[in-house]
Amino acid sequence: MMAGDAGTAVLETHNDEPIISDKNKTKYDVIIIGAGPSGYTAGIYCSRAGYDTLILSGLLPGGQLVNTTEVENYPGFENGIMGPDLMIDMRKQSQRMGTTIIDDVVVDVNFRRKPFKVLTSSEEYEGRAVIIATGANPRKLGIKGEETFAGKGVSYCATCDGPFFRNLEIIVAGGGDSAIEEATFLTKFATNVHLVHRRDELRASKIMQERALNNEKIKFHWDSAIMEVKGDQKMQQAVLKNLKTNEETTLDAGGLFIAIGHDPNTQLFRDQIDLDDKGYIVLKNKTHTNIEGIFAAGDVHDRSYRQAITAAAFGCMAAIDVDKYLTESADKQ
């Protein structure tokens, strides 16, 4: 979606009765940066608690799920739901509760003094509390066919998509703990799992290595890189290159899981709040950051689970923590 224009916008709701959102308004009780499962859930809870709430969605409203096809593991949908549809429903539900959602990109923040300031490409907003829900992006290989077959054989989450690949040959790219964990998990569904690693030894922990090396379903392709993904409507093959001999081979496979890490979207906050060595937000107490009044929810701090349901849960938790913070702040005045 394009960045929001200044002025008045009409927002859709489930009951088809539009809420008129005044985009000239700049002061809110709560500002939520990011519009994935955590951001929308936080918006629902904050608005229901009676707070004037703004969500700034950024370039990709809905987060990673807008690029996901079928979601089978989100509770409440017996037959599954398409990722974009789930995000549209969350957005509408948040709006129905009274949340203002503006599709604009945050370019700077000032958390050094209150009220906190959040600057977008077109406006400056003030909030008494801020929830950071900007998520994290999986690292990509950058190879030919990767974008074409994303969601059609190429995946970045074994837990999310593994069951769709039953009785198929599957490739996993990577050599760290995440790659080994995903490869081991995928053996529950795949005929074989081909682990492609650029080096001649794994970077994963010793116990993870032993587990993978002793698994008959995991086949190792050492000193190799994936150069291209091919197929018709779905992925059918991958071109592998041996980095020592330069020999290329074609491997028939129905899926490619890329497990080379994630990058949290925290560049804006590097000089403002505490981050760990990988750039994830460090939580001090529940969903609190090191700055009183600034909270975080979802993949922006979660290095372990990275699921839509856990992101939504963190959004709920952050909103409840915000409510407690704003209530205590009002009592002190």
Please tell me about this protein's structure.
- There is one protein chain.
- With 333 residues, the chain is of the alpha/beta class.
- Strands 3, 4, 7, 8, 9, 10 and 21 form a 7-stranded mixed β-sheet that branches. Strands 12-19-13-14-15 form a 5-stranded parallel β-sheet, with helices on one face.
- The chain contains 6 helices and 21 strands.
- The protein has helices at 37-48, 83-96, 158-161, 177-186, 206-213, 308-332, and strands at 8-11, 19-22, 27-33, 53-56, 70-71, 81-82, 100-102, 106-110, 116-120, 124-132, 136-138, 154-155, 169-173, 192-196, 218-221, 224-231, 235-242, 248-252, 255-258, 262-264, 294-296.
- The longest helix is centred in the C-terminal third of the chain and has 25 residues, at 308-332.
- Mean pLDDT is 90; it is low at 1-21.
- The radius of gyration is 22 Å and the shape is elongated.
- It folds into 2 domains: 8-137 and 263-332, FAD/NAD(P)-binding domain (3-Layer(bba) Sandwich), CATH 3.50.50; 140-258, 3-Layer(bba) Sandwich (FAD/NAD(P)-binding domain), CATH 3.50.50.
Write the layout of secondary structure elements.
Blueprint: E1 8-11, E2 19-22, E3 27-33, H1 37-48, E4 53-56, E5 70-71, E6 81-82, H2 83-96, E7 100-102, E8 106-110, E9 116-120, E10 124-132, E11 136-138, E12 154-155, H3 158-161, E13 169-173, H4 177-186, E14 192-196, H5 206-213, E15 218-221, E16 224-231, E17 235-242, E18 248-252, E19 255-258, E20 262-264, E21 294-296, H6 308-332
Parallel strand pairs: 3-4, 3-10, 4-7, 10-21, 12-19, 13-14, 13-19, 14-15
Antiparallel strand pairs: 1-2, 5-6, 8-9, 9-10, 11-20, 16-17, 17-18
